[in-house]
Amino acid sequence: ANQSLSALLFKQRPGDTLTAPTNLFYEAVKVGLAQPDGYGRGNLAKFMLNNLTWTHVQTLAPNIVEAAKEPPPADRMFGQDFPIYAIKTLAKYNVAEGIPLAVRIADKYLLYGGLGNISGEALDVLSSSYRGSAKEALPALYTMKSWAPGNRQIKDTIDAIQTHPGPALVH
Q: Is the pLDDT of residue 30 over 70?
């Protein structure tokens, strides 16, 4: 039932959800982010990236980060893209909290190939969105590079962070 409601609110009728009174809108998104199953959270993935404004992200950032830190306890395969969309949503507005989240996701899935290229997408956000503003990620990236010395994307991410200026970050 929860996943059906989540699909209705965030995939099938996103316009209606966005025009709901603010207090109801934020509560609906927070409840959606706290769904214990991957399918329920997964319904918010593209909704967040495509619809949340800077004002929304300011209010919901702690909930977005918390929901993306760990896979949901149930039905994990359906929410595999949720963490990437969470990171991309934070990066869209240069939210600093997206950097450690991207590092965490890249590190968590680096050596596990069963969920697509989650690590690669997290590294891509660091190298293409945050760039030089993600210098705090370098120690973790050097450690990842030692585990996977042949991984070109880790090297490219390190190079991008070291050589390209990044945006001003907000918290």
A: yes
**How far apart are alpha carbons 72 and 67 in whole angstroms?**
8
When mean pLDDT is compared across 69-78, 102-111, 112-121, the lowest value belongs to 112-121
Between CA 152 and CA 161, with CA 157 as vertex, the angle to 5 degrees is: 150
**Selection from 152, 171, 159, 78 nearest residue 126 by Cα:** 159
- Nearest CA to 104 among 69, 62, 79? 69
d(CA 26, CA 20): 9
Is residue 17's pLDDT more than 90?
Answer: yes
How does the average pLDDT of the chain come out, rounded?
Answer: 90
Q: Is 18 left (phi over 0), alpha (psi -120 to 50) or beta?
A: alpha
Nearest to 122, CA basis, from 70, 149, 157: 157
pLDDT, greater one: 107 or 164: 164
Contact present, 166 and 132 (Cβ < 8 Å): yes
The answer to whether the predicted template modeling score (pTM) of the entire model surpasses 0.85 is yes
Comparing CA positions, the residue from 79, 98, 78, 96 lying closest to residue 87 is 98
